[in-house]
Amino acid sequence: MNYFALINWLVFLLLYLIILRALRKFYKQTLQFAELLGANETLTNFIVSYGLLEDLSLAYVFTTLIYKYTYALIFNLHSAWLNRQPTIGLIIYFLVEIFGAIVYVFLRKKAKK
User: Are 4 and 83 in contact (CB under 8 A)?
Assistant: First the structure.
């Protein structure tokens, strides 16, 4: 049995549940923040949509990791095969973060005018 995959699977499952709980709290705060902006509908809609996109991009990484390690457990694969797609998922997550920050700053400046 591939114990490395089993340990990683359990760790990533636990991390996924913890992060999912944190994301739910963060998303509630995002919605509250969006309500505070009320006057600017474009900025409010962006905050809500971006919060959801951010949550989905982070959830993708952990879902992929759990799926890969489950696959590794079933077929007794080893770690070299497992490292490609989660790395791509993390890159996508950070690109979403950077994109969101840029658009948020742009919309904020536009709202101040």
Answer: no
What's the token pair of residue 10?
């359990």
Residue 66, both tokens: 């759990």
What is the model's pTM? 0.41
Cβ atoms 112, 38 nearer than 8 A: no
Successive 10-residue mean pLDDT values, the chain, 113 residues:
70 74 70 66 71 68 68 63 62 73 74 65
Q: What b/e sequence results for 25-63 when a residue is b if at least 16 CB atoms lie within 10 Å of its CB, and e otherwise?
A: eeeeebeeebeebeebeebbebbbebbeebbebbbbbbe
Handedness of CA 45, 47, 50, 52 (dihedral sign): negative
Query: Which of 36, 43, 35, 48 lies closest to 103 in space, CA to CA?
Result: 43
Total domains present in the chain: 1
Q: Please give the residue range of the domain that contains residue 51.
A: 3-112
